[in-house]
Amino acid sequence: EPEVTQTPSHQVTQMGQEVILRCVPISNHLYFYWYRQILGQKVEFLVSFYNNEISEKSEIFDDQFSVERPDGSNFTLKIRSTKLEDSAMYFCASSVTRGDTEAFFGQGTRLTVV
Amino acid sequence: ILNVEQSPQSLHVQEGDSTNFTCSFPSSNFYALHWYRWETAKSPEALFVMTLNGDEKKKGRISATLNTKEGYSYLYIKGSQPEDSATYLCAFPWDTDKLIFGTGTRLQVFP
Asked: How far apart are CA A11 and CA A6, in angstroms?
């Protein structure tokens, strides 16, 4: 069964360092997303990506964040200069259409900023 | 402020018990309502995507109903099993694109 894969599963980084979280969405999906969950809080939307551009982003997704789909298969989230409050589980998701079909989620990358 | 609420936050039941949880969401501009099952150390997995008022969907022992006019959905599990232990999330697509999640209901089923 097709699945969304994310690497790495865990990442520990020092404050101020850049991190890149990687995702391989399901191949025939057209919509791609990043969500995150800070421990004890709700899963929250970061950004959606369609047709090689950002379609929507949340207030969290500031200039320190960027997304790319460099080669038609990988979908990456970059945090340029990590802060302690960026520590969270980051989920990649993909879907065939917007909102009215299920999103398929990866297993997440647990990012710890020290 | 767009808010999706779930209750209860956690639930402990005995194997064989039936249980249900609630998700409430804004009733205006309804587009769809998603239910996901999230086991520890795994990815959230879709159970249902519901789009029509009065809709009822079923997958094995799990079923869900939808009332878009009053803005709620119920998820039912009949005859709970230990393997049903997970966090159940509902999510509301906003602007048809991003999902707004509830806090989840953490279910633990004891043998």
From this structure: 12
